[in-house]
Every structure is written in C-alpha cells, then in structure tokens.
Amino acid sequence: MPAHRDQSATLLARLEGTACSFCDEGHLVSERDTGTDAVVCAACGTPGARSWTAKPAAADAASALAKSKSD
Asked: HSE on the CB side for 4, CA within 13 Å?
C-alpha cells in the first residue's frame, strides 16, 4: 500500500467514533462517500473527512458501467 494511502487510512481510523462537529447527537463512522473513503456522521450524514487517495467517483462509475455491460 502506498504511504499516502496508509496515512489516509490511519487518519480516518483515528477520527472514527469522534463527535460530529455539525450536529449534537452524532459520531463519525467509516464508510464510502461519493466514491471515496470517509468518516461520516451516523446521525446527520455529514462527512467529517474524506480521503481522495481512493479511486475517484468517475472511475468507480466507469467500472460499474463496464461491469453492467458485460453481464
């Protein structure tokens, strides 16, 4: 794994479980947001942080389109 990807994963892991800075009741959970790795508030859905070291959303969409055409 490239160092920048490892650092992004470490940062997101450290943020997971912290309080949401946008609402009073939520905490951050790990998930994909608009095609990137992220920590997102479980209550309000606002992303707290995202990593752009993952494949861009356009690449994910192109991959999904290619897969659907092959099925």
From this structure: 4
User: What are the backbone angles phi and psi of residue 46, rounded to the nearest 5°?
Assistant: -75, 130
Domain that holds residue 58: 3-70
Residues forming a β-bridge with 40: 29, 47
25-57: per-residue pLDDT in tens? 999 999 988 888 999 999 999 999 998 864 544
Q: What is the DSSP code string of 8-45?
A: HHHHHHHHTTPBPSS-SS-BEEEEEETTEEEEEETTT-
User: What is the tally of structural domains in the chain?
Assistant: 1
